[in-house]
């Protein structure tokens, strides 16, 4: 089976709805929060050349798009998804790597960042040279954070004034001297524990509010 990963064009508009549906169903299956996308938004990214799609014999296999913030100072990769029929083939890593290299050429001076709750994405990011950072090192553009409104964890983000959530922030700065292998090796056990600690802290606060309200 031959899978090609290419920069999107208008001919790929027909896959927009399927991409949105796959992203949403995948998030529901994992039980994680998600910022929902619309087919129109995906098509806009496609027509601007700010997205890459994986195709297997003409069928949708995977996707990821690029967003730029603060006049190109920051770049984020969003909507990384692999169709269920093509998982366990290492395709997510291949798409992410392609988008990463494409971003470095398209936005050479931008810092590349992302926020995620997925350990698989964290591992891929780490292998590319990203490092975990506090949200204060990410973009301050309100448009980026407003994109989290449809996520189930948005109230947590708001309560922390966009400084903390269940997601982990990760950043790649092209101005930093990179090493091979990356200077920030992925430690799944540590990041998994960090995620659990965050969840426990937020849960305790919610329970405290409920208890006070009942009193």
Written overview of the protein:
The chain has 215 residues and is α+β, with helices and mostly antiparallel strands. It has 7 helices and 7 strands, in the order E-H-H-E-E-E-H-E-H-E-H-H-E-H. The protein has a 7-stranded mixed β-sheet, with helices on both faces. A hairpin with a 2-residue loop joins strand 2 and strand 3. The longest helix is centred in the C-terminal third of the chain and has 27 residues, at 188-214. It holds the Pfam family Acetyltransf_1. GO terms for molecular function: acyltransferase activity, transferring groups other than amino-acyl groups. This is GNAT family N-acetyltransferase. InterPro entries: Acyl_CoA_acyltransferase, GNAT_dom.
List the helices and strands and how they pair.
Layout: E1 3-7, H1 16-30, H2 39-48, E2 51-56, E3 59-69, E4 74-82, H3 91-106, E5 111-116, H4 119-128, E6 131-133, H5 142-146, H6 154-159, E7 168-172, H7 188-214
Parallel strand pairs: 4-5
Antiparallel strand pairs: 1-2, 2-3, 3-4, 5-7, 6-7
Organism: Flavobacterium panici
InterPro entries: Acyl_CoA_acyltransferase, GNAT_dom
Domain N-acetyltransferase: 11-151
Summarize the structure.
This protein has helices at residues 16-30, 39-48, 91-106, 119-128, 142-146, 154-159, 188-214; strands spanning 3-7, 51-56, 59-69, 74-82, 111-116, 131-133, 168-172. It has 215 residues and is an alpha+beta fold.
Task: Name the features.
single chain, 215 residues, alpha+beta, 7 helices, 41% helix, GNAT_dom, Acyl_CoA_acyltransferase, acyltransferase activity, transferring groups other than amino-acyl groups, GNAT family N-acetyltransferase
